[in-house]
Amino acid sequence: MRRLENILVTGGAGFIGGNFIRLLLENTPDFSGRIINLDALTYAGNIASLSDVQAKFGGERYCFEQGDIRDVGLVADIFEKYGIDTVVHFAAESHVDRSIVKPDAFVQTNILGTFTLLEAARRYWAGRDGVLFHHVSTDEVYGSLGETGAFTETTPYAPRSPYSASKASSDHMVMAFYHTYGLPVTLSNCSNNYGPYQFPEKLIPLMILNLKERKPLPVYGDGRNVRDWIHVDDHNRAVWRILQCSKIGESYNIGGENEWENIRLIQTLIEIVAKAVGADADDLNRLVAFVKDRPGHDRRYAMNCTKIKRELNWERVIDFEEGLVKTVDWYLGNIEWVDGVRSGAYRCWIEKNYKER
Ligand code: NAD
Ligand code: DAU
To answer: Of the bound ligands, which one is closest to the alpha carbon of residue 89?
Structure first.
């Protein structure tokens, strides 16, 4: 029986990790343990996203540690101090465009950081049962699909950006620790997430905010690239199922099985935002601006999720268009949060790099 009592969540101040902590503490009756959130608070990390969680659960069931997953001493101390029995590893550099401009941090955090955590777990858990290291990864490790087909867990890895190559490398390291040292690991590869608290460099929040501010909507290439969208809560419920009842050493695909061409998604967002703010959709449509394509832009992702559905009894439950309406409302109603996350290091980076497109 897995303990799931003292869970180390890395990257819990980011988009998916933060929503995971909220889901577990507020909305998962069969979780009664404690969460330790280790996050370096990079440009993408915002601890204020969890201020209500801190106020409600701080000390007893939720603890925050600011620090870098590459810090060998700190990570070892955290295992010891909190008696960690489970790791859910979200922390990463996560944005493909940034990995093209500056890949260094991706190698450092995604590869070296994951290795540091694995080593700490291997040392601290030597001789212990009921422990688990779950690594959160991406569908991008599989590369790019043609017009048909979907990725399965046995699709060979073929990453094509520095981001996906760094994630693929970390996935291989996780599996190597299982095969070589017997470290109890699981791995999940998920498709594009959307929902509240996503940093507004990613497609959906960027488009919502540009629409609100009447700024151009940069569409890369011909806009016909396809992504498979899933609500962050559906992703996180799948991760929870994996923690509860997966088989050690297995990897699971998670996705919405919900493919959208970027341009069609942007047009849907235009309609939702127009309705929400009382604007004319045709006026907003004029903001669409086709720009230079992302180098190495993967054409299509699609996930086959048969394994997790059949073996762990997981299903996506959030309807995409309803989820989008709620997400638009969330961004329009949380401008203070948006201003907060856009005010720091990211703003400098985007001013320096974005105009190149
Ligand atoms: P994010 O960029 O929103 O958050 C990443 C978090 O990691 C931030 O809080 C940041 O401060 C922290 N972090 C970065 N470097 C760190 C370091 N060296 N030490 C400690 N903390 C550090 O990312 P996200 O979108 O929430 O993604 C979380 C995980 O899920 C990533 O591993 C990503 O590869 C994976 N993933 C993301 C998606 C998606 O659509 N966003 C889909 C599939 C998988
Ligand atoms: O597939 C899972 C991955 O999804 C995760 O592993 C990554 O962490 C996450 O960032 C996301 O990667 P993408 O590159 O697919 O997401 P992004 O939101 O950057 O882009 C989605 C699509 O929209 C992609 O085809 C590029 C396009 N795009 C993106 C931006 C930011 C545009 O056309 N214009 C834009 O301004």
So the answer is: 1
pTM value is 0.98
Q: Which residue has the tokens 């030597």?
A: 126
Nearest-atom number in ligand 2 for the CA of 266 is 33
- C-alpha 121/C-alpha 99 separation (Å) is 28
Residues within a 6 A CB radius of ligand 1: 10-11, 13-17, 39-42, 44-45, 68-70, 90-94, 109, 113, 136, 138, 167, 190, 192-193, 199
Give the catalytic positions in this structure.
139-140, 163
pLDDT band, residue 206 (cuts 50/70/90): very high
Q: Of all protein residues, whose CA lies closest to atom 15 belonging to ligand 2? A: 192
**Annotated domain spans of the chain:** 6-194+231-257+297-319+344-353
Q: What is the CATH number of domain 6-194+231-257+297-319+344-353?
A: 3.40.50.720
Quick one: residue 43, left, alpha or beta (phi over 0 = left, psi -120 to 50 = alpha)?
Answer: alpha
